[in-house]
Structures are given as structure tokens and as C-alpha cells.
Design a protein that fits this description.
Elements (H helix, E strand, L loop, with lengths): L1 H6 L2 H13 L1 H27 L11 H18 L4 H11 L1 H6 L5 H36 L6 H27 L1 H4 L2 H15 L11 H7 L9 H7 L5 H29 L9
Helix pairs in contact: 2-7, 3-4, 3-7, 4-7, 5-8, 7-8, 8-12, 8-13
Pfam family, one: ABC2_membrane_6
Protein name: ABC-type transport system, permease component
Keywords: Membrane, Transmembrane, Transmembrane helix
Length: 274
């Protein structure tokens, strides 16, 4: 009964997949952009470590740092593939959100299903090719071993949870556009905050202690840093279990917040004919 209840959202996931493949040449451009970013990161941190008086910086060797940054860059492509921010923003601008309210479907679940379609198309078009190339290059150039199968599987579970967390954050921030009418500005602020605090640009060991203390009570570290630490084998299995439980907790909390805030948002929806 419950499965049939959610079957209607599969159509939106399929549409998300087809949408991703329709823009496959655009994905190729992003793919090349990511490769260039990875090359720049490599030479940037090589210069930093060559001029460092010690072989480790904040507990990380050069190999650790390069492996972390490359996998973080590749995984960010997949984890941040959510489309909910733009979908809710455009629906608000164009007045489509009023029509969505009278449809017999949950608007939040519809956007999540559509984003999941993008997640799958991004995995096929960008993540898997980049991930395989990164593993091979890291092994041949720096002698970094392949990830263990158990860590790889747990990493994939963690990435799916991270994606749902990011999608929920996108939905919550996208809702603000109904008050600001500044979707592009919100996008820039959102991307900077999420990229910096999620560990996409730097591991949190480089942050000051007071900031790390604050981040422990926020969902950011569950987005990118924790999945990468699982993949690199830097967490014990008990720590991995705790990480997955914390991610699941944030999925539940943010899902409740999304439904609560959207129910409040409905009262502010004003459109022609709405």
C-alpha cells in the first residue's frame, strides 16, 4: 500500500534522469572543468607542502591531503546535484507553485524525486568516470592504494544520505526566494556556505577549534567531509556507524523542517488566479 503511494513519484525521477541526459554535452563541460580544478588543486597543495617546515599539516600528509581534496571534489559533483533549489525558485517566480498545491501529490516529495533523477544521471555521466580516473591517477602517481570494498560500499550509503541532506537544505533556502526575489544572490551565498563548511574545499581540521565546536551541532560536516573520511578509511567501523546515524538524524530533522516551513509558506503564496 505504501509502495503504491510513492510509485507516482517515480515519473518525476525518470524525468530528472532524462533531463540530465538531455544536457549530456553540458555535463561534459562540467567534467572538463572538474578535471582542471583537480589539476590546479594538486599543484597548489604541492607548493604549500614543499614550503612547509614539516611533512604534515594539521595531521595530514601531502598524499592524505591530495586524496581528500580530489575525492571531495569528485563527490561534491554528485552530492550537490540536487535541483530542488532552482525548481522551487522558478515555481515561485512563475506562479506554478499555486498549481502544484492543488495537485494530489506532496510538493516536497515531488522535488526530491526529481532531484534523485538528477543524482542518478550525474552518477552515470560524471561521478563514475571521474571517480575511476581519480583512483587510477592517485595510485599511479602517488602510490595511494585502492579503497577497500567495505569502505566503498559504506561511502556510497553515506553519499546518498548526504545528497538528501543537501537537497533538504536547497529546499529550505529556495523557499526564502518568495520573500527576497533574489534567487541568483541566494544561490551564490548558499554555494559559498555549503562548499566551505561541508569540507568540500578543506577538511575541518584546518578550521579553528571554536568553529569546529559549532559545526558539530550543524549538518554541514555530514555533507562531504564524513563520506570522504569513510572512503579513505580514516574512521573506525564504530565511528562510521555513528556517522551514518548522525546523517540519518539530519535527514529526519531537515525533512520535518521542510514540511513545516512549506506548510507555513503556503500562506504567503499569492499569484494570479491563486
Amino acid at each position: 500500500m505504501k509502495i503504491n503511494k510513492y510509485k507516482k513519484y517515480l515519473a518525476f525521477s525518470k524525468a530528472g534522469i532524462l533531463d540530465g541526459f538531455a544536457y549530456k554535452f553540458s555535463a561534459l563541460g562540467w567534467l572538463l572543468g572538474d578535471l582542471v580544478s583537480i589539476i590546479i588543486l594538486f599543484y597548489l597543495w604541492q607548493a604549500i607542502y614543499q614550503n612547509s617546515p614539516t611533512e604534515t599539516i594539521n595531521g595530514m600528509t601531502f598524499k592524505d591531503m591530495i586524496a581528500y581534496l580530489i575525492f571531495a571534489r569528485v563527490s561534491t559533483t554528485l552530492i550537490f546535484s540536487s535541483s530542488s533549489f532552482w525548481n522551487i525558485g522558478f515555481d515561485i517566480y512563475e506562479g506554478n507553485i499555486a498549481i502544484s498545491l492543488i495537485r494530489p501529490i506532496n510538493y516536497r516529495y515531488r522535488l526530491l524525486a526529481s532531484s534523485f533523477g538528477n543524482f542518478l544521471s550525474t552518477a552515470i555521466l560524471m561521478f563514475i568516470p571521474l571517480f575511476i580516473v581519480s583512483i587510477v591517477i592517485l595510485n599511479l602517481s602517488l602510490g595511494i592504494g585502492f579503497p577497500e570494498l567495505a569502505h566503498l560500499l559504506l561511502f556510497l550509503v553515506s553519499v546518498v544520505l548526504s545528497f538528501v541532506i543537501v537537497d533538504s537544505m536547497n529546499f529550505l533556502i529556495g523557499e526564502i526566494s518568495i520573500f527576497t526575489n533574489a534567487l541568483f544572490g541566494l544561490m551564490i551565498i548558499k554555494n559559498i556556505i555549503l562548499s566551505f563548511f561541508s569540507g568540500s574545499l578543506l577538511p575541518s581540521s584546518f578550521f579553528p577549534d571554536w568553529l569546529n565546536a559549532v559545526l558539530r551541532f550543524l549538518p554541514f560536516q555530514s555533507m562531504v567531509e564524513k563520506p570522504i573520511m569513510i572512503l579513505l578509511g580514516r574512521l573506525e567501523y564504530m565511528d562510521i556507524l555513528m556517522t551514518l546515524l548522525i546523517q540519518l538524524m539530519w535527514v529526519v530533522i531537515l525533512s520535518v523542517l521542510c514540511n513545516f516551513s512549506f506548510n507555513r509558506l503556503k500562506k504567503h503564496v499569492v499569484s494570479v488566479g491563486g
